[in-house]
User: What shape does this take?
Amino acid sequence: MRSALILLFAVWGCCGPASAQNSKLPVRALGNAFADVYEKVAPSVVVLEVAKQEAEMDEGTFAWEFLLRDRRLPGARPRVEESEGSGFIIRPDGYIITNAHVIEGADPDRGVVARQKDGTRMPLRVVGIDDKTDIAVLKADAKGLSAITWGDSDSLRVGEFVCGIGAPFELDYTLTAGIVSAKGRSNLTSTVYEDYIQTDASINPGNSGGPLCDLDGHVVGVNTLINGLNRGLSFAIPSKIAKAVSDELIASGRVVRPWLGIRIETLSDDPALQKMIGRERGVLVRSLEPDAPASHSEVRPADVIVAVDGEPVETARQLQQAILRKKVGQAVRLNVWRRGADGGAFREMEVTTAELPQSPVEARGGPNDGPPGPGEGVEFESLGLQLQNLDPEMAKKMGLEAGGVIVTHVEPDSAAGVAGLRRRDVITAVGDDIIAGTDGFATAMAKLAPGESTTLLIERDGQKTYANLKP
Assistant: This one.
């Protein structure tokens, strides 16, 4: 609303006192527009009453979504706590959308209840939850409800007026207004797929899950509270994402996404990484997940992806969005730059997408964590590294298709330690040279000029990754 007032004062100043009568026209038109949005959308908004089984908390800890609730004493038993959030009706037959975190921890016996503007209360069941976008869909046993109309978040422009409706601080059916201050915000939460609309419309605890509307009363986003209390910047999940996710949840109770199985990073975000890799732009492949589509392709760690099916990509988010537009089982052409002895070259390779699993495996551990190594090996003292040949039997036990050398010890603060090598890592290549044994490793390292670094390809707990080793 602050932005609206600034605009109104500007209109008044331009017209001057002599034109006061005429200046009331745009003022009243804008006020009527906000009022029309509220009257059109509010009947579709619901206040969600959520009975949550509160976990034990230390003294001074608060429930995330609620402000200054009673403090818990150490050792207090869990109890059921009533909380409120917002949601809105997306289909007349009772389907309601909200944030997944609004209903997180709901008591299974008491569940979630939707309260409409006229006071009608409707018990709800959970249809589906997508933690990766913080979207949940619930269902009331009802028909003929007033449903919202989706708007086009893609066509929303920075600077446009938007309104939010929800129940901040348990103040039901509160309208707030502001402008779209940015689009495409990411890296704000732990959710995987972020593409937030940023607005200065006030979004406070209790607003989460409510609609963000344009001046036509169309819903262009789902409001979500990020990092606690409102600080003048608020965020909403775009309607394009919210509608697609809710449609899938209604259809099957889950969201199916394509997956390559690569961990990625934007090169332009890290100057040190640019220098190490030898390229300034593109999306760096950090590692390949075990038994993922990319692990069965020509893609390897330290590759830099620059295009998907001819569509240029420069950031991890662009690559992610490009893959999400594909279908599960679809062949995707990747244009890749690979560092080499000649400085680097572009290659084209194909990967067939698979369905994203619920919990991709993550490699963990320190440089010498895990079970003991396979025994004494060849010492590379200048690198702080001890290696042993990997025989076929050992490779089979470790689930490796190819040979290599296994790391049996890493000295802290050595070149190998700085590179991030760990015991039980299997080095399969040094630069472009495939390694079959310790002699091959020594030969490949001897090719390096003084001060030159190289990329080691590594198998780690089934995951393909790389290390940049500088002797």
Remarks:
- The longest strand covers residues 80-91.
